[in-house]
Design brief:
Blueprint: E1 3-7, H1 11-23, E2 27-31, H2 34-43, E3 48-52, H3 60-70, E4 75-80, H4 89-94, E5 102-106, E6 113-118, H5 125-134
Parallel strand pairs: 1-2, 1-3, 3-4
Antiparallel strand pairs: 4-6, 5-6
Helix pairs in contact: 2-3
Amino acid sequence: MIRILLAEDDAVMREYLTRALERSGYAVTAVDRGTAALPLVQTEHFDLLLTDIVMPEMDGIELAQKAAEIAPSMRVMFITGFAAVTLPRRQSDAAGARAVEAVPFARPGDGGRSHVRIGKRQRGPLNRRIDRFVL
């Protein structure tokens, strides 16, 4: 089973993503901040780090950079509720992303739009399944 580490500070979004991913057949471990995710990266194996970009204590970019040092084979996907947030090429490269693209999706309950930032884009079983979930 594919294991996903979800770092999302918004409780509603964290719960929604956890349920949706689990219903799609993924094993999800969810935390509310980057500083809580990093020790898990050090002690457990995850196939994907799904992280919000804007979080308190440690943002998703810093988390991805540190996680890439610890677990270089782990894929990274960035999400954000702030449509204006962009990852400059330099930061996305440092975070281990091979490609970054914005994919809009509706946030549950508010009718607004959020964006998914996809990192370390590769074709394979994980990305095809995540693509179907996200798109």
